[in-house]
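Entry 14. Ran structure prediction on the chain below.
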Amino acid sequence: MPSLKKPCKVNFKNILLLGVFLGSSVIWATPLVPMNKAFNSLMELIPFLSSEPKFTEKENEKFISTQLKEMNDAFKTAKHDSLLKQDIFAPSMEAIRTELHSAEEAFREGKKNYAWWRIRTITSQCMSCHTRLPENHSSSFQDGSRLINPTKFSDPYHLGIAQLIVRQYPEAKASFTKTIDESLIKKDFKNILLPLKQILLIQTKVFKDASQMLKVIEFYEKKKGISLSDREVMRSWKNRLKVWATGPFAKWKRISVDQEAETFINTVMKPLFKNNNLYVGKHDVDLLMAQGLLSNFLFENPEAGKAPDALYWIGISEKFLERENFFGPGELFFKECIVRYPKNPIAKECFDEYKESIEFNFSGSRGTDIPPEIKKELEKLESLIKQ
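Output, structure tokens:
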């Protein structure tokens, strides 16, 4: 299976914006449930996650250390409901606690670059998991979601992200639409795709409604002032949406059993990766739809025979979509595949993809510099496959 070469590194602009408006406690009423307390601390750290030098500066050490401790303490008492605990790749509380403990300990020991990478991974995991659950399922933010005060947000895009996190999808879509409309009125077209991508994520990954998204694209692509490059992106989305709305993929509304999962992987996923056309973003729609379908399949069938295959294909989809500024911790799906199914043949492919992601994340002008802790983790994962 072809792997990613050198895509652009994930842009933390969206996540940074998240910190701007969720970092302040005035947005949330009190008392907060433990999960909201944990995420308030996480939001305080977000501005530092877009800059490794800022994260490692001595003057920020006390503040970051305090936030890591508060977030770690909050997650110790946070709980997910019983259904979510059965998900093969739920936002596993145990996994998050392990990641947080590792990050806090590393930071305390002066291994700040390792702690920085761990917290970035957790941030991406949280956003991804809250958008991959079936749309009618509650989240651990369900109490906090009722406490969002729209009047606290001067920017509808920021409000939309907050609503997206707490799974208020219709409200989030309305906020992103308002963002686009205001940009058109102001003739400010430079970031027009950013809110449109969030609507695309909601309509495809969450609702799996290509027809409705088609209407959205067809409405906006004709607006004057939108750049040729942005129109081309919209056109590519529209072409793939038609395939899912009325074309050969329209039959895929749900994956319920292993045989359906196998057919979906063979007829939809594998052909997408035969050529390198994924590098130019023409198949964002396909990858988002696939994520939603396969994630729901795993959620409803945690012990499915095709679970390791689903983990691999979700992981590789997220790996590509990170380049397009969609939230997604693809590495964690690969890791879950290896740990849970080390004897399955696809575990080797998951390891290769995971290793490549790590090497890319820690590569720079001076070469590849992987922290010792992560090297040990890679060695441990590889040993599981070889046993």
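The chain has one domain: 1-169+241-387. Will compare against last week's run tomorrow.
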